[in-house]
């Protein structure tokens, strides 16, 4: 891979002292499931009381992948020679002997289940503070008064930073999503502001005084007058970007409602990512057609982004020489996020 | 490949001064066949008198794979420009000229055909001593009084040591083969003895005083009383492990018969192996149903082991960090075999 | 890839100050097409006036592959964020702003369209002299009095030098094409002369006084007497080799006509090539069956060569140790061409 860390200039491709979306809540069950996260193999399951568990997915006895084993109560039994580990990672039983070998332990990942998502902490266990999660309540993912849809996860052959860059430059909407996002063809021409907020950053666009398009009509059937529509891209950390925003009546400035698209990004490996999407709105709670519409839009829009960043990943992995990168003024926000991310990774390296 | 030589600590992954099963007797014919062995491309065929021949499979003229050529009498004619080589590897003819170039020679591998298997020697030709073959007569593969079945070969994406380790820790039978090996679910709990024998090593288990299961009933229809059953794993060198053993009447101790499973393991490349199996028994010679049963068991059991070691190979080749290896007391035999194998490889390096 | 530059002893696998066939004329249209050439991604299209254009196929903004964009007039618009580049490679427009960033330029490749083929120059633009193209008129590709067929391109997983070597040692015809090239079975036995000509080299064979085979009868229906047939292999540079030659009446020496096979070879990447073939004859212009016959022969013969060189590429990429190369006397021409090619590559390295 010729351009292994592009667009970052750091050696380590991702921060580890970080919460990441590991799975949607419905993916984690009494069936063992393995997922690569930050290049590690993580085993996910639920205890009999429903609590989600995340431990290392490789048996320390003979490196057998543990998802091929089975659950015995709250413990995982390896499918090869039967080594059995509790949800705390400690070896509880070796079938061929009494007692267990020293050091026969699985790494345990701290878990928080919130907003329909199972989050794991990939740094040292002692530093795992749920307060370091992005403020999910503020964006409607874990708050009263919001209706949420959790979309199915996509695993993509692309470094996670390509998805962060994608979401932070919404001028791509005009080209990639011209036919799938209503009024998308106009986004590239909107003026942009960049605002740093609480360790994060928002790239904001606003369409002002536009006639309500069919999607807005579906969301707010009584609105015939002109509206203002926000096209935010809010970086809340490497694990989460919010897009969307508030739609308001143009004349009065009164908010009609807020529709957020919550993009949860998890590095699977240096060149692969998991992409979780949730949609959250603070209006139309009794209208299930809006949720169905959001899910249907997701199945049309998400593949367009996946295709784009996979195509770039293929270019980056190839041996063809790359042109010297140029940026537009509109890339200012994305470039600031690159520096935030690099600073986070470098701070970890210094602390280690 | 992050863990290229695991579980060995040597650089060279396999010994070369060694006989290896190259093919079953029926695979070698008047049609050219190429097989990768120890990372080399070996061409196998029979002379007109039936003698098996093994030579290098790459033409020294322009690196064309010789199995795409054809046999002319006892010689191989390259399919590209017609360079022709005798069974001793010497170039005999170049169609475009009189005489042959110097050094136009194929490497020749010493061959012994024994027990329904074509064995080749991968060390220096002068050291190729058939006496260095494992004692095939002792295990029923090349001896009067035994009935033998030769199973079809499997080529597996796994380093050959994973298969050696698999066979030497039969506690896996309880988990991998619980439903396919009669009484297999009890193997992990049997006590184990380890006995060094003539440069090899036997990990022995014995089920004592068990009722004859359906397989034993099929093998010894007159036996209704309790039996003792051996579950040996006998390492006879890196190329061959015998499992199985003798079934005896529990009360009298009288042997009813011996059923051996003969596992012939040949490294194809650092991460790939050929797996040859033969079954040999010294009873029931006039009962062809027993042979059919052995072959049918093979088609069910062998894929379970192949799946297990391929899954480990995938883990080893991945970039995920591996946990520090732990072993059970029952692994003692397998760990001794690792050291035997490493010593064999190191001795070669010193002698070279 | 263990033998990355075989059979060359240079580090750089190909010369760059060179014209190469990039596409047949019919492949280049108002649809964007990308092709890997010398490890670079080249974008090909036609302007509205029909002129062929070749520019770099990777957007310098965010490395998006430009063939996924679209043509706007004579310009290419990137499919991701809409950066738009003219046929001279200069950035003309960035949708989100007025003006364009500095250095936002695509590399432009000089193009000549000749003989039904679009040729590009991969060296510095200032050195791109159409006079450095092989003399296409001399071999009937771009000359009055010749009838030409352009065959469909094949992209082959093999280093381009393997195809050069293949074409320069036509003794392979006897083995690879014995059934598809009339009288091919006799080629290996014909005496060979090697003649250096104008920076190139011709390996010549002539079948003398042979009865006209069915192909010759189809080409020259009135010829019943014995003929002489040339089997030339003329290296005119790394991009082009001519095979075939003149067929004459044996008794009088009078030429009946010339049938050339024009092989245009373009490195795609270190281990991959594009193979363009044209057939040209100076007789039978009013007999379309001869053109159809040439195209049909191509679809049978070309895959035989592709299979052969792909098989060698697989051997070269493998980890198996290669035998020390030996050559026949008939390889003299091919060995001289290796040295010509190495000298061309080394001269570039010295000049750089």
UniProtKB/TrEMBL annotation, chains A, B, C:
Keyword Metal-binding carried by entry: yes
UniProtKB keywords: 2Fe-2S, Iron, Iron-sulfur, Metal-binding, Oxidoreductase
Domain of life: Bacteria
Gene3D superfamilies xref list: Naphthalene 1,2-dioxygenase Alpha Subunit, Chain A, domain 1, Rieske [2Fe-2S] iron-sulphur domain
Keyword Oxidoreductase: yes
PROSITE patterns (alphabetical): RIESKE (PS51296)
Positions of the Rieske domain: 20-120
Pfam family, one: VanA_C
Entries under PANTHER family matching the protein: 3-KETOSTEROID-9-ALPHA-MONOOXYGENASE, OXYGENASE COMPONENT (PTHR21266:SF60), IRON-SULFUR DOMAIN CONTAINING PROTEIN (PTHR21266)
Protein name per the record: Rieske 2Fe-2S domain-containing protein
Organism whose genome encodes this protein: Novosphingobium pokkalii
Lineage: Bacteria, Pseudomonadati, Pseudomonadota, Alphaproteobacteria, Sphingomonadales
